[in-house]
């Protein structure tokens, strides 16, 4: 409770809202600074603080909002004002005022967190798209615009940021090149062999690396827009050039108001992060401590914590330099650098491991007496990083043979157990969280990883320590005799597998029965309801529109369509095996045209129709069913598609009729609900055009029959399917698939794909073969019978719903009104309609008003 | 005492018919519309204290789409909630508070069953 009048509060001005400036505000608020200060934050960028460490992900799917740091509510806290797009022009130290375009603000204290700017060497001809930089989201937008008509892009600078920038260009689809002045990549963090290993890896990814080359001028190119001219008549042509040749501290304000500067620029600070003016602090990349600028986020956060503590009158740790160890994934390549990576300490000796075949390199630098680790370099595999870092940071005595720490990990890996870490060991260096602090939080009752992260903030900075945190967490739980809670949710103290057995054994057919007998409460939740809904469907295959099943389904199963971002649905009729008649195609086209649906071919050889409103679904399905189609279950965790090639009927190489087999499989398993979606494919020969080896169940024709592959996966974590059985006849093939699918349904966790399930199976593939092929558990007959029940009870859900006016009542946008949702708007693009974007909406509203 | 709730208590409720009892779906949601306002109605007939009816704003603040009425109803830590269907954040049926993003509360309105009619008070 803040009883002070606003006039009693002093103005605290934070200049800059980058990662470190944001952390200052976060720390101030957390430590109760609002009882003393009104905080004003000025930022020249138009957005609130965002994650610069993961900037290149902006081009691989993350938007500005998801890169934003922390909760937006921080800047809505009374007493905190964020002035976005308002640069501070001057600091008047005599009057203690900051001068901005929006007026003058008096201050009691200032924290400068202005960060840095990219250094662009003066090169003749560098301008526009040949002088791009990579620092802010606005820079990224500029790069993206420049890349539109470009084929090739060059990054000048082979350091950490330069390689990040090269990754960004690659994500934009450009042929990327890196030009570095020094004779190796990442000269600060890596030594010579480390740089070579990294170069080899990066080149194998198709990125050109050109070392020891200084750009002398940029002139118009002949095949590309620009030509970069190097010494000795060498040149490289390109369509755009991004400079990432280092950063310079943004100290313009300090120069303007004559604060002391470091020898190589930067606002000079003492160990309290104070500038030469006691009312002005500086933190992060704009500050120079002992003439050094720290270009990493962890030291910046360290400074931010120190300043926040001082401003709140708390004891603060002095800033006396920082550990510059880094663990990165650059262009997908692991790179790590710890402590004295170059072995500069007097008497230091090194152990080195070089694997030229895979491009891996590891170096361990040890003290003259061989007792302690001083530093390390890693390229290609960062799984060694956490252990090595702990040895260096906590001066843990090395094992008798220190080389064991960098040699390939055999079966008995000499990894440093988390047990060996002292309580003072830092686990998360971004937020300075020790192993002791983590164990304290666990002792105080925190027994889940997510809660531990939000409570201690460990692994919420760069995230590099997430693996170590998990180890410490699991180890601490085991040591305390706490078993990890595997309850499905607060309503059921059972796993999905246990609930499945209960449902089977007791013949339970409703959620209420299961909850009353084995659960808690009376409503269930968004976790247990769909899980139980899926189990009931897998076991008994009743219509999901039955009144007792309806409340269990997620919205997609409830309305038997896939909800899209604007609340409309997409509709996918089943096209078994991808085989469709011209009349079928025309019927789908006619429906799409009539309801103005956006139409797209799916990866599963079907057609997806987008943009239908809830009340239109029954009409659309009535027409599709009249044309002979059935529901495609694209909305369910259930059998999706069986992809196939044309097979021996048409193809000169085909050895079996793959389409016929695909139709047989799709017809048998359509409507089967399972822990996750199921995809199938059948190829007519070993050329494998149907990509069966990336499916849950893949079938490939042989001269003698069919080879069965299982547990493949595409998607985020692709996995090749494994060969399970060879040269099967049709009946045996189906029998094995029956058993495989039912065993998976019986034993998998909720939302677990067959690939992850298979990997978690004790005994692996051999066990699975024993159960399914040799029937080692005597289960085969039971599994087949259970599948037969599901097959016999199949009925198209849409056909069933259309027969029942009670079920159709649900398909109304408004229950008291025939109209559609007036807030759904579309625009035309490439001849079809698509949902309007938020920024286009104002335009439409104005037009409609006119 | 919170002054706004004192005003709400003092005001005579202005009940207006919205839809019929037969339009509701037990333990699930439907959407009705009154003068341009989209109302998500959740009907829980078997609560320990008797049948309950809740009326919340149908617009999901996170997606901007009118979809709350199509969310899954359940309970979390003793609170009755609906999970928004697109991004699965939970709103308390009682007062519209979002459990994950407290700044994103949904408007709620008094609603009741009068015979076979559902009546709502959308305020003055």
From TrEMBL, chain A:
For whether the record's keyword set contains Flavoprotein, the answer is: yes
What CDD domains does the entry give? NirB_Fer2_BFD-like_2 (cd19944)
Residues of the Nitrite/Sulfite reductase ferredoxin-like domain: 564-626
Which prosthetic group or cofactor does it need? [4Fe-4S] cluster; [2Fe-2S] cluster; siroheme; FAD
Enumerate the InterPro entries for this protein.
Answer: BFD-like_2Fe2S-bd_dom (IPR007419), BFD-like_2Fe2S-bd_dom_sf (IPR041854), FAD/NAD-bd_sf (IPR036188), FAD/NAD-binding_dom (IPR023753), FAD/NAD-linked_Rdtase_dimer_sf (IPR016156), NasD-like (IPR052034), NiRdtase/SiRdtase_haem-b_fer (IPR005117), Nit/Sulf_reduc_fer-like_dom_sf (IPR036136)
The family note in this entry says: Belongs to the nitrite and sulfite reductase 4Fe-4S domain family.
Q: What is this protein called?
A: Nitrite reductase large subunit NirB
User: Organism source for this protein?
Assistant: Pseudomonas fontis
UniProtKB/TrEMBL annotation, chain B:
Against InterPro entries, the record matches this protein to: NirD, Rieske-like_NirD, Rieske_2Fe-2S, Rieske_2Fe-2S_sf
Q: Does the keyword Thylakoid apply?
A: no
Gene3D superfamilies per the UniProt record, alphabetical: Rieske [2Fe-2S] iron-sulphur domain (2.102.10.10)
Q: Which residues form a coiled coil?
A: none
Keywords (alphabetical) are: 2Fe-2S, Iron, Iron-sulfur, Metal-binding, Nitrate assimilation, Oxidoreductase
Where are the membrane-spanning stretches?
A: none
- An example Pfam family from this entry, by short name, is Rieske_2
Q: Does the keyword Metal-binding apply?
A: yes
Span of domain Rieske: 16-120
Q: Which domain of life is it from?
A: Bacteria
Official protein name in the record: Nitrite reductase small subunit NirD
In its UniProt entry, the species of origin is given as Pseudomonas fontis
- Give the organism's phylogenetic lineage: Bacteria, Pseudomonadati, Pseudomonadota, Gammaproteobacteria, Pseudomonadales
The gene that this protein is the product of is nirD
């Amino acid at each position: 409770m803040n009883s002070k009048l606003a006039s009693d509060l002093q103005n605290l001005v934070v200049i800059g809202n980058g990662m470190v400036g944001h952390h200052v505000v976060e720390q101030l608020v957390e430590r109760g600074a609002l009882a003393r200060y009104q905080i004003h934050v000025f930022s020249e960028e138009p957005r609130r603080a965002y994650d610069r460490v993961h900037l290149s992900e902006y081009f691989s799917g993350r938007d500005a909002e998801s890169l934003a740091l922390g909760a937006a509510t921080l800047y809505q806290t009374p007493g905190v004002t964020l002035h976005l797009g308002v640069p501070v022009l001057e600091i008047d130290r005599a009057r203690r005022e900051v001068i901005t375009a929006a007026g003058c603000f008096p201050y009691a204290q200032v924290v400068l967190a202005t960060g840095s700017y990219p250094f662009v060497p003066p090169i003749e001809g560098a301008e526009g798209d040949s002088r791009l930089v990579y620092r802010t989201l606005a820079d990224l937008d500029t790069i993206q615009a420049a890349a539109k008509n470009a084929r090739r892009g060059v990054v000048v600078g082979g350091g950490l940021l330069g390689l990040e920038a090269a990754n960004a260009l690659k994500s934009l689809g450009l042929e990327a090149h890196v030009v570095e002045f020094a004779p190796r990549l990442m000269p600060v963090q890596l030594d010579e062999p480390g740089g070579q290993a990294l170069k080899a890896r990066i080149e194998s990814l198709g990125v050109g690396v050109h070392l020891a080359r200084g750009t002398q001028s940029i002139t118009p190119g002949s095949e590309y827009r620009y030509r970069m001219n190097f010494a000795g008549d060498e040149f490289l042509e390109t369509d755009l050039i991004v400079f990432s040749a280092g950063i310079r501290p943004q100290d313009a304000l300090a120069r303007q108001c004559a604060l002391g500067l470091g020898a190589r620029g930067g606002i000079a600070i003492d160990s309290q992060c104070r500038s030469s003016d006691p009312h002005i602090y500086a933190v992060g990349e704009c500050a120079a401590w002992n003439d050094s600028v720290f270009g990493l986020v962890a030291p910046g956060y360290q400074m931010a914590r120190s300043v926040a503590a001082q401003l709140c009158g708390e004891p603060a740790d002095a800033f006396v330099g920082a550990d510059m160890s880094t663990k990165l994934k650059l262009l997908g390549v692991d790179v790590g650098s710890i402590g004295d990576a170059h072995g500069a300490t007097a008497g230091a000796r090194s152990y080195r491991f070089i694997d030229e075949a895979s491009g891996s390199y590891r170096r361990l630098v040890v003290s003259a007496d061989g007792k302690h680790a001083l530093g390390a370099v890693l390229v290609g595999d960062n799984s060694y990083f956490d252990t090595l870092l702990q040895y260096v940071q906590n001066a843990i005595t090395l094992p008798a043979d220190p080389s064991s720490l960098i040699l390939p990990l055999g079966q008995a890996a000499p990894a440093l157990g988390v047990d060996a870490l002292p309580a003072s060991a830092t686990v998360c260096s971004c937020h300075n969280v020790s192993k002791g602090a983590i164990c304290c939080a666990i002792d105080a009752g925190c027994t889940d990883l997510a809660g531990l992260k939000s409570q201690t903030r460990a692994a919420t900075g760069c995230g590099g320590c997430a693996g170590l945190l998990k180890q410490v967490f699991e180890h601490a739980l085991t040591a305390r005799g706490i078993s990890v809670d595997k309850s499905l949710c607060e309503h059921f103290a059972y796993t999905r597998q246990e609930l499945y057995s209960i449902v089977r054994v007791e013949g339970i057919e409703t959620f209420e029965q299961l909850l009353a007998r084995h659960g808690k409460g009376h409503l269930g939740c968004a976790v247990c309801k769909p899980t139980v809904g899926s189990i009931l469907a897998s076991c008994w295959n009743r219509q999901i529109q039955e009144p007792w099943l309806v409340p269990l389904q997620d919205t997609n199963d409830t309305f038997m369509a896939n909800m899209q971002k604007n609340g409309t649905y997409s509709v996918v009729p089943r096209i078994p095996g991808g085989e469709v008649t011209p009349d079928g195609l025309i019927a789908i086209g006619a429906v799409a045209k009539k309801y103005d649906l956006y139409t797209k071919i799916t990866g599963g050889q079907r057609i997806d129709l987008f943009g239908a409103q809830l009340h239109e679904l029954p009409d659309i399905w009535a027409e599709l069913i009249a044309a002979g189609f059935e529901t495609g279950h694209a909305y369910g965790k259930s059998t999706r598609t069986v992809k196939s090639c044309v097979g021996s009927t048409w193809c000169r190489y085909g050895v079996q009729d793959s389409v016929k087999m695909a139709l047989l499989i799709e017809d048998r398993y359509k409507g089967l609900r399972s822990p996750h979606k199921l995809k199938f494919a059948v190829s007519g020969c070993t050329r494998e055009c149907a990509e069966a080896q990336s499916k849950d169940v893949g079938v490939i024709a042989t001269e003698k029959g069919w080879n069965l592959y299982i547990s493949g996966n595409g998607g985020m974590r692709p996995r090749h399917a494994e060969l399970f059985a060879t040269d099967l006849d049709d009946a045996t093939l189906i029998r094995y698939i029956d058993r495989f699918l039912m065993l998976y349904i019986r034993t998998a966790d909720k939302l677990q794909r067959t690939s992850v399930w298979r990997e978690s199976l004790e005994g692996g593939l051999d066990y699975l073969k024993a159960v399914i092929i040799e029937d080692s558990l005597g289960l085969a007959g039971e599994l087949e019978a259970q599948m037969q029940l599901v097959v016999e009870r199949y009925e198209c859900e849409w056909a069933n719903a259309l027969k029942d006016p009670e079920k159709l009542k649900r398909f109304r946008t408004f229950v008291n009104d025939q109209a559609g949702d007036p807030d759904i708007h579309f625009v035309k693009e490439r001849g079809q309609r698509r949902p309007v974007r938020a920024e286009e909406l104002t335009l439409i509203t104005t037009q409609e008003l006119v | 005492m919170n002054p706004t709730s004192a005003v709400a208590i003092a005001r005579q409720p202005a009940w207006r018919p919205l839809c019929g009892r037969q339009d509701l779906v037990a333990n699930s949601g439907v959407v009705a519309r009154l003068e341009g306002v989209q109302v998500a109605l959740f009907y829980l007939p078997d609560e320990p204290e008797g049948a309950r009816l809740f009326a919340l704003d149908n617009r999901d603040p996170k997606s901007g789409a009118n979809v709350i009425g199509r969310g899954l109803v359940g309970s979390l830590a003793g609170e009755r909630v609906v999970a928004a269907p697109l991004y699965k954040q939970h709103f308390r049926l009682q007062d519209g508070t979002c459990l994950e993003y407290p700044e994103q509360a949904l408007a709620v309105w008094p609603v009741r069953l009068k015979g076979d009619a559902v009546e709502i008070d959308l305020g003055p």
